[in-house]
Backbone:
């Protein structure tokens, strides 16, 4: 499949919580036609640095920490087949101590499939034992050796668009300005590419997009192109809006050398 045009969105703080990827061009969402990436708001490339993939790629795959998400578990098990000797933390093994230890040692790719929620102050990932991994706790581990790619495949991990409420363990009221998820902390930690959601992906759709994204990434195309291909993958269930609920921030041109 030939690569598509690349498009870089340079947004300010007032615009970054809006789903520009859904903008229609000639009757079709922009994200299906172009390799779209967002530049970090208020951060220069010099300040962030640019991580590089190692050979072989070192991957950390985290799935179903709460033990009640079988599709997330299967998602990580399938992605694990794509990488050479990945570190796989599933169920009770996906605890804060082990996740933190592996992250500090450094990974090129981190993938999370599980539950993400928020309270009045923080966004957080739910790990084994009910531990909450907040954005503030994530940054130090990632900053030690920033990964090239992080994908958090769960509800509203990228941002919450304006006017969207959220029912969950910690209900969230809709706001006129939206709310940022993990995007800012990922960019400030120096992560090369962050892929997150600005909606609630379906279980099967989210798993299909994730698997297609990693498969495309490992062919050597850019991260932004890998996400575009994943959105259009024939393995994604038809009439499922999930592929359109992802955004990519950082170096959209980052690719395996």
Residues:
């Amino acid at each position: 499949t030939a690569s598509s045009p690349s498009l870089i969105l340079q947004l300010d703080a007032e615009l970054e919580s809006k789903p520009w990827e859904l903008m229609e061009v000639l009757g079709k969402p922009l994200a299906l036609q172009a390799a779209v990436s967002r530049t970090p708001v208020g951060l220069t490339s010099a300040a962030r640095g640019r991580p590089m993939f190692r050979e072989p790629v070192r991957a950390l795959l985290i799935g179903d920490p709460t033990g009640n998400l079988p599709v997330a578990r299967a998602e990580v098990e399938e992605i694990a087949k794509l990488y050479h000797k990945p570190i796989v933390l599933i169920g009770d093994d996906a605890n804060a101590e082990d996740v933190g230890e592996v992250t500090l040692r450094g990974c090129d790719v981190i993938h999370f499939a599980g539950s993400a929620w928020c309270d009045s102050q923080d966004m957080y990932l739910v790990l084994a034992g009910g531990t909450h991994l907040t954005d503030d706790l994530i940054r130090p581990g990632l900053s030690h050796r920033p990964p090239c790619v992080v994908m958090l495949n769960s509800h509203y991990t990228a941002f919450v668009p304006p006017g969207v409420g959220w029912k969950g363990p910690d209900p969230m009221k809709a706001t006129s300005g939206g709310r940022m998820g993990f995007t800012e902390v990922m960019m400030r930690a120096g992560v090369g590419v962050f892929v997150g959601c600005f909606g609630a992906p379906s279980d099967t759709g989210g798993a299909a997009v994730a698997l297609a994204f990693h498969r495309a990434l490992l062919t050597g195309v850019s991260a932004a192109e890998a996400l575009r291909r994943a959105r259009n993958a024939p393995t994604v269930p038809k009439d499922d809006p999930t592929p359109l609920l992802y955004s990519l921030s950082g170096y959209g041109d980052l690719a395996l050398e």
